[in-house]
Amino acid sequence: VPLFLDKPTQFFILSKQGGDDVVLNVTPDFYRDIPPAFANESQPKHRLRCLGIVNGVIGLQWGSTCLALWNPATREFKEVPRWPIMPDNKGAEEFGGQVLGLGFDLQSQDFKILGLIDCYGAGIEPNVYEYHLYSLKANSWKKVKEALRCELNFHHSQTDAYLNNGVYYWRAEYKSNNDSYNTSVIVAFNFNTELFTEFELPKDACCHNREHMRIEDGRVWDDCTISLTLGKYKEMLALFVSDAIENSDCYVELWVATSFREDDHGVPLSWQLVVRVSPFPSFRYLYIHKFRECGDVLIVQYGNSGEGEGCLYDPTTSTFNNLGVRFCYSFTYVESLFSIIRMLN
Asked: 54 near 104, Cβ under 8 Å?
């Protein structure tokens, strides 16, 4: 399955052709399809990034307020209306917002974007947070009625953690008055029911064969460098675990959710270890993006220079294939003729 690689201001597609891994720069396709007037107004070259991909439609953001939907196969491009301003907090000095994810409502056959808006000022204590949802069919934003109970710090995954059943997943932390620790959870949002739910990190995956690790009050305690990344593997919710210690061998693991609670909230009941790659070459820091079905691992590796390089690691031969590109985000991309414009009519 091809992967869409996103570096600020540039897009690439990684795919296999004749058994070889090929990287294609599709940035020119974006500038081919974007309306000239919109390009001049929004200056998309600055901080351009991908929000996610659903049914071949790519969500895009640049700056803090500019959003759009783009289907490269149909060459359709749709500007998304700007962020709404919360009317109940007109005394706020500033407003801020962040996009959390792009999804598809299977019931109404509608593309939706979930955003978090906050306002703050001298007369507002504590800060006010609201979740808003954009509908492509309505071409407008609305407030999510059933929101989360308090402020969360979302860990934006650098790979896709959205499943075809319409549920999106994030790692998040509850902000504490005591900065010594925060409570880590997994948050899920169902784009069909427009409902949030949250649940604990899987203890088996986080502490499996790691005597130095423990989970207390929802927080992962560790004496070394560990990375937990939510993603997907063969359309299953996955957790990528890496234990990287500089100048020493490390390992990476792939865990998948094998059963879910009998409702539509997307809460896993059990997780299973699928593969463990050990020893894994160590770096100053590495970030796992994908376990591909062919067996190799897509990572971004950071050496002493501090610059990240995208590469594929083959556990069977213990070799790296440097892709020759730097990227920050990666998403599964399946081309489709899903029409964005037709949904507005």
From this structure: yes
Burial grade of 32 (CB within 10 A; 0-12, 13-18, 19 or more):
exposed
Between the alpha carbon of residue 130 and those of residues 4, 113, 184, 265, the distances in Å are 30, 14, 20, 20
Give the list of residues 6+ apart from residue 93 with CB closer than 8 angstroms, or none.
Answer: 120, 121, 122
In this structure, are residues 278 and 248 in contact, taking their beta carbons and an 8 Å threshold? no
Contact 69, 60 (CB under 8 A): yes
Percent of the chain with pLDDT over 90: 32
Residue 144 neighbours by CB under 8 Å, 6+ apart = 114, 130, 131, 132, 133, 194, 196
Asked whether the beta carbons of 48 and 60 are under 8 A apart, the reply is: yes
Euclidean distance between CA atoms 241 and 239, whole angstroms: 6
Q: In terms of residues, how long is the chain?
A: 345
Name the one residue in this structure whose structure tokens are 């160590």.
282
In angstroms, the CA 165 to CA 40 distance is: 37
Q: Where are the alpha helices (DSSP H) in 165-308?
A: 203-207
Least confident of 21-25, 44-48, 287-291: 44-48
| Reported pTM | 0.86
Give the position of tokens 């549920």: 167
- pLDDT on residue 331: 92
pLDDT of amino acid 306: 47
What's the burial of 317, exposed, middle or buried (CB within 10 Å: 0-12/13-18/19+)? exposed
CB neighbours of residue 197 within 10 Å: 19
Query: Band of the pLDDT at 72, cuts 50, 70, 90?
Result: very high
Q: What are phi and psi of 253, to 5 degrees?
A: -135, 150
